[in-house]
């Protein structure tokens, strides 16, 4: 008996010693919420795609520098203005061992673009009118008109196995997704965590960790505590204060990158006094963008003068932001007279950093305007943001926009074109420029069109771009990872230093 | 007993119907989940299509009739957001809520009642004053603060307990303490008042005159006689604990119903909210019923029928 007990102790000690000497086996990530769904064609929120983008491969991807790179498609060529042919990798297998073929790719596109399927992501792919497998490893896509942003959108189109989806149906597939990506789905402990395991047969770069666990930890301070105690290895969605706390503790590292998300201040030019361009210009001078970025956000974001970021196609150099000039702002307000005192509601929701909202309100009132904050929940705020009748939309608002496509079309068209229900702008010149840019196949000409549009937006202050948002993660000290602008979290692009 | 039960059952049914109807309409007055579901680039047509898929474009009265009909068949529907049956979602969360409520109740009861007795027995003494201060502090500390403080001390500095999430027994300790402290103070105060009430009664004086030891007096007579208010408070506290310790669950990443409620309200996941409210109504009504029965067990003078039995 005594010998047996000794043996047990030796075994435990050996396992522990072995465990610590071994490479990182289990990698734990703290998300804010659990993923809503793991079927990549259904839900569209970060907590879902952080997870499922590791289970599925996309048609194309972006490399760490942000350039579009092959993934399931090895190459592509334009057959005509509206048709493009993709060549599909021949060596990709789904996690159930079945090969991935051109029909799976075509099926995936047809599935997500079928209005009856009701994908929330339909709006990103609705320019695709036809997808068919034209050979064992070729797929041809047809778009509704010339559509230069197609590849940028396809970065987000995950390939699902036709045979599995058709066999098990939508609900079962969501509960037990089968993909071809670097990680396989293992378990989903609802409300708690999702566990993935490494796909050792992956065709590309394999993941460094045997298993990955995505936990739901809603409180940011708790996520930081998890990181500092080693309970988690990577935590998402931190603010600059918590980043400072991590640095101070010295127990973990802060990982940050400028994203393609642009913070902007929206003004409804259909309502007085905003229908007067002088008031909009006064606001542009009154809001101290540098002050907000440096003073409140610890310098992580970067001030921009156009409604795009250097991470977008369509960014134009040399469009300077309005400088902070309170005297000029006050002079413009005085010039307009009593109308300038019309009360304006500044719509917001708790999702946004209220320190920024309050600072903006204060700066505008300092310039002699009359701004009140109207706080509602997100759904109500969004309802006020989207309206086909701009007169009934929010008067003032703050937003942070990302199309996850890194193309100016994805941010400028919805916010500025008169056909979009997000837009509170009716400008024939902008309409014409944005429509032309949307279907201009020549990259140089397309860029020039956007540069032209940026100038009009600045001159008219159609919306006021504030800054390019930064995303802040906390990581274990051993973690080697360069976060990218598109806010993706690819496990197989990470590394671990023992 | 039978008549009492029937009457109570009728009241409960009306209450539950009222609660569900209210929740159904209030939620739908507050906004539309479609806009939260679609990406920023969605067009008007995409949004309309999505609304149709969710069935939100039908007249309100038709939606309500469908809801009631499904409810009668015990079909709580599917979550818009998570694309699974509402019952699956709730069933996954319920065990965690029960565990946390149980843990918190344990902390509250096992500490609160003895503290209350002690406070009553030592009334007017310095030690009682100090203890009362501790009780008040426990009740006044907001849980978002005490929770983070516990994590800082016991997980980050001392490394004794895991900081967040569910798991083994050790994961349950901090959330239970954070949540239980609030109810502990309530239990202590109610017990104290109730014992003080009893102390001034004639039977206590007679018992003392007969030479019954204080220990025996407290354990055999006072605690039992003073426990009626404690039981009613317990019923109330349990329904509070079950209805969701939203803040504690958020701070400790504890996947209970409270957290689910908030997430579902924010994302306008109507069917999940409805189901949770329904569950809450059932639990509250059921516990009150149970408390009524317990009264009669503790104090045989209380008879549920109202007449002699």
Structure report:
The complex is a heterodimer of chains A (498) and B (309). Chain A folds into three domains: 2-52 and 168-257 and 471-496, D-Maltodextrin-Binding Protein, domain 2 (3-Layer(aba) Sandwich); 60-162, Dipeptide-binding Protein, Domain 1 (Dipeptide-binding Protein, domain 1, Alpha-Beta Complex), CATH 3.90.76; 258-470, Dipeptide-binding Protein, Domain 3 (Dipeptide-binding Protein, domain 3, Roll). Chain A has 16 helices and 19 strands. Chain A has helices at 2-21, 46-55, 102-113, 122-125, 150-154, 162-175, 220-229, 240-249, 277-286, 289-296, 326-336, 354-366, 378-385, 409-416, 428-438, 443-460; strands spanning 26-31, 60-62, 68-70, 73-78, 83-88, 128-135, 138-143, 183-189, 193-198, 211-216, 234-235, 252-267, 302-303, 344-348, 371-375, 396-401, 463-476, 479-480, 495-496. In chain A, a hairpin with a 2-residue loop joins strand 6 and strand 7. Mean pLDDT of chain A is 90; it is low at 7-22. With 309 residues, chain B is an all-alpha fold. Helix content of chain B is 76%, strand content 0%. Chain B has 14 helices and no strands. At the A-B interface, helix 4, helix 6, helix 7, helix 13 and helix 14 of A face helix 2, helix 3, helix 5, helix 7 and helix 13 of B.
Q: In a nutshell, what does this entry contain?
A:
The complex is a heterodimer of chains A (498) and B (309). By secondary structure, chain A is an alpha+beta fold.
Low-confidence segments of chain A, ≥5 residues, pLDDT <50? 7-22
Query: What is the distance, rounded to the nearest whole angstrom, between the alpha carbons of the first and last residues of chain A?
Result: 39 Å
Q: Report the CATH superfamily of the largest domain in chain A.
A: Dipeptide-binding Protein, Domain 3
Q: Name the beta content range of chain A.
A: 15-25%
The span between the termini of chain B is: 10 Å
* Structural class by SSE content of chain B: mainly alpha
Name the shape of chain A in a single word.
globular
Name the chain pair with the biggest interface and residue counts per chain: A-B, 56 and 51 residues
Architecture (CATH level 2) name of the largest domain in chain A: Roll
Total beta strand runs of chain B: 0
Strand content of chain B: under 5%
Q: Give the biggest sheet of chain B.
A: none
């Amino acid at each position: 008996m005594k010998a047996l007990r000794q043996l047990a102790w030796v075994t435990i000690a050996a396992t522990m010693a072995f465990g610590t000497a071994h490479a990182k086996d289990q990698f734990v990530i703290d998300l804010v919420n659990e993923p809503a769904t793991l079927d990549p064609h259904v839900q569209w929120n970060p907590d879902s795609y952080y997870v499922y983008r590791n289970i599925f491969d996309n048609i194309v991807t972006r490399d760490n520098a942000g350039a579009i790179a092959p993934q399931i498609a090895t190459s592509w060529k334009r057959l005509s203005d509206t048709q493009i042919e993709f060549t599909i990798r021949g060596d990709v297998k789904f996690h159930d061992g079945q090969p991935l073929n051109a029909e799976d790719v075509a099926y995936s596109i047809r599935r997500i673009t079928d209005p009856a399927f009701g994908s929330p992501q339909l709006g990103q792919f609705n320019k695709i009118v036809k997808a068919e497998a034209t050979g064992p490893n070729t797929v041809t896509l047809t778009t509704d008109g010339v559509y230069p942003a197609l590849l940028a959108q396809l970065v987000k189109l995950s390939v699902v196995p036709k045979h599995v989806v058709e066999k098990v149906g939508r609900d079962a597939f969501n509960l037990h997704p089968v993909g071809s990506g670097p990680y396989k789905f293992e378990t989903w402990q609802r409300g708690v965590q999702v566990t993935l395991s490494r796909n050792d047969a992956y065709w590309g770069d394999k993941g460094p960790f045997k298993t990955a666990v995505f936990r739901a930890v809603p409180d940011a301070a708790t996520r930081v505590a998890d990181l500092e105690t080693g309970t988690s290895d990577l935590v998402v969605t931190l603010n600059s204060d918590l980043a400072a706390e991590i640095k101070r503790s010295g127990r973990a590292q802060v990982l940050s990158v400028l994203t393609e998300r642009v913070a902007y201040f929206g003004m409804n030019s259909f309502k007085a006094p905003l229908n007067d361009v002088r008031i909009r210009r006064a606001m542009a001078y009154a809001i101290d963008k540098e002050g907000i970025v440096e003073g409140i956000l610890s310098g992580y974001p970067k001030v921009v003068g156009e409604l795009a970021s250097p991470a977008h196609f369509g960014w134009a150099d040399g469009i300077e932001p309005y400088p902070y000039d309170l005297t000029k702002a006050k002079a413009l307000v005085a010039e307009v007279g009593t109308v300038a005192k019309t009360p304006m509601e500044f719509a917001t929701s708790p999702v946004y950093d209220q320190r920024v909202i309050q600072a903006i309100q204060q700066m505008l009132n300092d310039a002699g305007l009359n701004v009140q904050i109207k706080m509602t929940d997100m759904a109500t705020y969004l309802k006020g943001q989207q309206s086909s009748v701009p007169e009934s939309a929010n008067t003032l608002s703050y937003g942070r926009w990302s199309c996850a496509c890194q193309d100016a079309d994805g941010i400028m068209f919805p916010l500025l074109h008169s056909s979009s229900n997000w837009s509170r702008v009716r400008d024939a010149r902008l309409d014409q420029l944005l429509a032309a840019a949307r279907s201009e196949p020549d990259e140089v000409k397309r860029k020039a069109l956007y540069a032209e549009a940026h100038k009009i937006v600045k001159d008219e202050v159609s919306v006021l771009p504030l800054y390019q948002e930064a995303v802040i993660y906390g990581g274990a000290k051993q973690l080697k990872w360069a976060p990218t602008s598109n806010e993706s979290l690819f496990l197989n692009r990470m590394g671990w230093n023992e | 007993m039978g008549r009492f039960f029937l009457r109570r059952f009728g009241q409960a049914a009306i209450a539950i119907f009222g609660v569900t109807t209210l929740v159904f309409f209030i939620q739908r007055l507050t906004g539309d989940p479609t806009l939260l579901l679609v990406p920023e680039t969605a067009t008007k047509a995409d949004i309309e299509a999505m609304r149709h898929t969710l069935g939100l474009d039908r007249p309100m009265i038709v939606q309500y009739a469908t809801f009631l009909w499904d409810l009668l068949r015990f079909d709580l529907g599917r979550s818009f957001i998570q694309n699974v049956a509402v019952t699956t979602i709730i069933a996954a969360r319920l065990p965690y809520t029960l565990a946390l409520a149980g843990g918190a109740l344990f902390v509250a009861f096992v500490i609160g009642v003895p503290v209350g007795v002690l406070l009553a027995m030592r009334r007017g003494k310095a030690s009682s004053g100090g203890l009362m201060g501790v009780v008040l502090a426990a009740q006044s500390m907001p849980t978002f603060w005490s929770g983070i403080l516990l994590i800082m001390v016991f997980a980050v500095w001392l490394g004794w307990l895991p900081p967040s999430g569910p798991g083994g027994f050790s994961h349950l300790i901090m959330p239970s303490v954070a949540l239980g402290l609030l109810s502990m103070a309530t239990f202590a105060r109610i017990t104290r008042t109730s014992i003080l009430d009893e102390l001034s009664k004639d039977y206590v004086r007679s018992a003392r005159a007969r030479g019954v030891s204080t220990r025996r007096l407290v354990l055999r007579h006072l605690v039992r006689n003073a426990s009626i208010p404690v039981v009613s408070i317990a019923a109330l506290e349990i329904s509070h604990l079950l209805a969701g310790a939203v803040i504690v669950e958020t701070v400790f990443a504890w996947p209970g119903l409270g957290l689910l409620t908030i997430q579902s309200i924010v994302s306008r996941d109507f069917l999940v909210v409805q189901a949770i409210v329904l569950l809450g109504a059932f639990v509250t009504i059921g516990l009150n019923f149970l408390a009524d029965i317990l009264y009669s067990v503790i104090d045989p003078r209380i008879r549920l029928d109202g007449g002699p039995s």
